[in-house]
Amino acid sequence: MQKGAIRVQTENIFPIIKKFLYSDHEIFIRELVSNAVDATQKLKTLASVGEFKGELGELAITVKLDKGKKTLTISDNGIGMTAEEVDKYINQVAFSGAEEFLDKYKGQNEGTNIIGHFGLGFYSSFMVSNVVEIITQSHKDAPAVRWECDGSPEYTLEETTREAGRGTDIIMHINEESEEFLDEHRIKTILEKFCKFLPVPVKYEDNQINNTHPAWTKKPSELTTEDYQNFYKELYPFSEPPLFWIHLNVDYPFNLTGILYFPKINKSYEIQKDKISLYSNQVFVTDEVKDIVPEFLMLLHGVIDSPDIPLNVSRSYLQGDPNVKKISSYITKKVADKLDEMFRNDRKGFEEKWESIGLFAKYGMMTDDKFREKGNKFLILEDVDASKFYTLDEYKQETAAIQTNKEEKQVILYATNPVQQDSYITAAKAKGYKVVKLDSLVDAAFLNQMETHWEKVQFTRVDADIADNLIDKDENTTHVLTEDQETRLKALFEKIPQQHVKVELKGLSAASQPVIVTRPEFMRRMKDMAAVGGSGMSWYANMPDEINMTVNANHPIYQQILKEGNDQLQEKQIRNLADLALLSQNLLTGADLTAFVTRSVELMGEKSN
Ligand code: ADP
Ligand code: MG
């Protein structure tokens, strides 16, 4: 029997392992199963190049619990190790740069990272074990060996026999603090988390727990729509079927495969982030892909697999990695191309899905310049008259003649709430304008940003002014009132104790409303954004509402009111007209609303007198 001390440059790795790996102990299973996968794949490779000529047999990994002996054993029938190899790969732990690394991460909980950094995968077994045994027989003609270590730097190494022949058993004698790892369900959960899609069969309690050929590892041409949908079900058993998907597949300048699914979004509050899992050669790494996938694509679901991202990723690592940057822009490009393709090949279908797609698309166009360039072509605006959509170019073309203002800017008229803004929409449509619906959560910020990116385009909400002034201010104020009538009417409106309301007399068509309340675009937008918590916007939130009241002097009702001999009645009637206009804009609340109701009742009484 050979005895020796594990050679590491730092005097002892075990205290380090224990110190750094306090949390997240479960990853030892991932490390050991991954080693078993590696050993199996290596054997397959040797067989395929003719270096291994024996029988491969059924290659599989077995995970076994023995509660009586308090052991957890992970076995494979891969390449195995000779005594020399155990000495080389297990005993001589490469630990260069340890001091430096420890200094850097002092006080941080970077345990998982430290393991990967030093290739301490196997040693993670000591996080949960008093004693670890390795029983291994090489695929080469060499005796089986048994290695044992109790967590001190001393180990023993001796010849033995391995009943199963070629392969390796890692036997962990689970320590007292780690008894959770002697629980069947706990182990099952961990295996399902890390090993669900490993390329070598993993058996636990007589069942194979993994799918060795998940859809993303296959060629798109081998997969049917049903295959993609079934795989989605495998990933998210309780979710509604996805809208569509993108199969990622690159091998240069980095390796990346995966499938990203577009979920159906009915309500924006249903959005679930953190539904993309990162794998490295089919080994689960993390659900936190923030640094790999651009933020606007975090709404997608699915899997990405890249061997170029090490198993033990840490945030600080990912942020600095050039491959990660490339992966991120590759994914962005693929998503943009897919949307573009869908738009061109099946516009109708694209429009039907726009409610869900639009959210990603707009978010993406706001945060990513490249994505915006492509998005400008497939972004569509929905007319308030449902089921008509325009691209930006189409809208511009169709409205250029009448919706271009004096500054040569094209005015896109929009409604955020077509039901509430109906009277304004009707007025705008009567002038031949096209009004689009921009009512989603991102729209306010979206249109704000696009005004800075799109040349000569301006968004104006349909209630920002009376229809005559929506494109350009119409200075014509002629109307049918006599000078005397005008003076009296103005005086009546000035009696209204509303602050921050600007009253203007205009001669609109007799069919238009007698009073129209509008809210200038700029201030309204700023206040809307302040209301949803835009940074640096709170100043606007405290500003009073800016309201314009346009009095349509051509409306016949004024002729009638001005004939009235009773001053008080006149005032009440005017006040009511103003309140009705405010009410239609949802701007009449509280005591003002109560006063309106009371006054209305009074007026009815006076009428019948
Ligand atoms: P890494 O996997 O990063 O090389 P590990 O500490 O996980 O580091 O493993 C160290 C080495 O031990 C492996 O590279 C491999 O040579 C050997 N080894 C570990 N487990 C097995 C196994 N089940 N079969 C054969 N060799 C193994
Ligand atoms: Mg390893």
UniProtKB/TrEMBL annotation:
User: Its Gene Ontology molecular function terms?
Assistant: ATP binding; ATP hydrolysis activity; ATP-dependent protein folding chaperone; unfolded protein binding
Q: Where does ATP bind?
A: 31, 35, 76, 81, 96-97, 168, 315
Q: Which residues form a coiled coil?
A: none
Q: Where is the signal peptide?
A: none
Return the Gene3D superfamilies for the record.
3.30.230.80, 3.40.50.11260, Heat shock protein 90, C-terminal domain, Histidine kinase-like ATPase, C-terminal domain
Lineage, top-rank taxon, reads: Bacteria
Q: Name one Pfam family in it.
A: HATPase_c_3
Keyword Chaperone on this protein? Answer: yes
Q: Which UniProt keywords apply?
A: ATP-binding, Chaperone, Cytoplasm, Nucleotide-binding, Stress response
- Asked if the record carries the keyword ATP-binding, the reply is yes
Read off the NCBIfam families from this record: PRK05218.1
Q: Which family does it belong to?
A: Belongs to the heat shock protein 90 family.
What PANTHER family does the record point to? HEAT SHOCK PROTEIN 90 FAMILY MEMBER
Kindly provide the name given to this protein in its UniProt entry.
Answer: Chaperone protein HtpG
Give the organism the record lists. Chitinophaga sancti
Per the UniProt record, the lineage of the source organism begins with: Bacteria, Pseudomonadati, Bacteroidota, Chitinophagia, Chitinophagales
Q: Which gene encodes it?
A: htpG
